[in-house]
C-alpha cells in the first residue's frame, strides 16, 4: 500500500496553489517550478503521482455529480440527488448480488444448509445492507414529504393573505374574511 504523499504535508496555502495549478492543466515541471518559487521542493515523481491522484479524484467527483443530476432529472428533483442515487444504486447492486444466490439455492434444492452458496455471515451482512438501504430510503422519503408539506403550507398562507387583502379591498366583512381564511387554511385563523 502506498504511503502518504509528501505533498500532503505542504502548508495549506502552498497545497492550494498546487491544486490551482493542477486545475489549470499545468505540467509537472511547471508545478515543480511553482513549488521552488514558493520555497519548497518535492520530487518530480511525487508531484506526478499527486497530480494523477488529484485528477482521478476530480474526475470521479464530476462523474458522481453528473450521474446524480441525471438521476434527479429522470426520477424527480430532490434537494440531494446523490442520496437518492446512492440508495437506488445500492438497491440495484444488492438485487444483482441476490439473484445468483437465489438461483443457486433453487438449483441446489430448498434443504441446502449453505443457503445456495452463501454462508450465514454473508446472509446476515446482506440482510443488514438491505435494512440500511431501506432505512435510508425511508428517511429520504420522509424528508421530501416534510419539504412538500412545508411548501404547501406556505402556499396556503400566501393564498389566504392575498384573499384577505382582496376581500378587504372589496369591502368584505371580517366574518366573511374569516370564513375565506378558514376555507383556504383548513382551520380557524
Walkthrough of the structure:
The protein is an all-alpha fold and 189 residues long. The chain starts with 11 loop residues before the first helix and ends with a helix. It has helices at residues 12-23, 28-37, 44-75, 81-108, 120-170, 174-185.
Question: How much beta, percentage-wise?
Answer: under 5%
Radius of gyration equals 29 Å
Number of helices: 6
Q: State the share of residues found in helices, binned by percent.
A: over 70%
Q: Overall mean pLDDT score?
A: 79
Distance between the termini: 66 Å
Give the overall silhouette: flat
H/E element sequence: HHHHHH
Q: Main β-sheet: number of strands, strand sense, barrel status?
A: none
Give the strand tally.
0
Helix/strand-derived category reads mainly alpha
Low-confidence stretches: 110-115
Structure characteristics:
single chain; 189 residues; mainly alpha; 77% helix; 0% strand; flat
Outline:
The protein is built from six helices and no strands. It has 189 residues and is an all-alpha fold. The termini are far apart.
Question: What is the topological layout?
Answer:
Elements: H1 12-23, H2 28-37, H3 44-75, H4 81-108, H5 120-170, H6 174-185
Helix pairs in contact: 1-2, 2-3, 3-4, 4-5, 5-6
Amino acid at each position: 500500500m502506498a504511503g502518504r504523499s509528501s505533498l500532503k504535508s505542504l502548508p495549506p496555502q502552498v497545497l492550494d496553489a498546487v491544486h490551482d495549478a493542477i486545475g489549470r492543466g499545468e505540467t509537472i515541471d511547471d508545478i515543480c517550478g511553482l513549488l521552488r518559487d514558493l520555497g519548497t521542493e518535492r520530487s518530480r515523481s511525487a508531484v506526478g503521482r499527486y497530480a494523477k491522484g488529484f485528477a482521478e479524484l476530480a474526475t470521479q467527483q464530476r462523474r458522481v455529480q453528473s450521474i446524480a443530476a441525471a438521476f434527479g432529472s429522470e426520477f424527480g428533483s430532490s434537494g440531494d440527488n446523490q442520496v437518492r442515487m446512492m440508495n437506488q444504486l445500492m438497491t440495484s447492486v444488492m438485487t444483482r448480488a441476490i439473484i445468483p444466490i437465489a438461483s443457486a439455492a433453487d438449483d441446489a434444492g430448498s434443504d441446502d444448509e449453505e443457503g445456495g452458496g452463501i454462508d450465514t455471515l454473508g446472509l446476515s451482512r446482506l440482510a443488514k445492507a438491505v435494512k440500511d438501504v431501506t432505512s435510508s430510503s425511508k428517511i429520504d422519503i420522509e424528508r421530501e414529504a416534510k419539504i412538500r408539506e412545508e411548501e404547501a403550507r406556505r402556499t396556503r398562507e400566501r393564498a389566504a393573505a392575498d384573499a384577505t387583502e382582496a376581500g378587504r379591498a372589496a369591502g368584505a366583512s371580517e366574518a366573511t374574511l374569516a370564513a375565506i381564511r378558514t376555507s383556504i387554511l383548513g382551520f380557524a385563523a
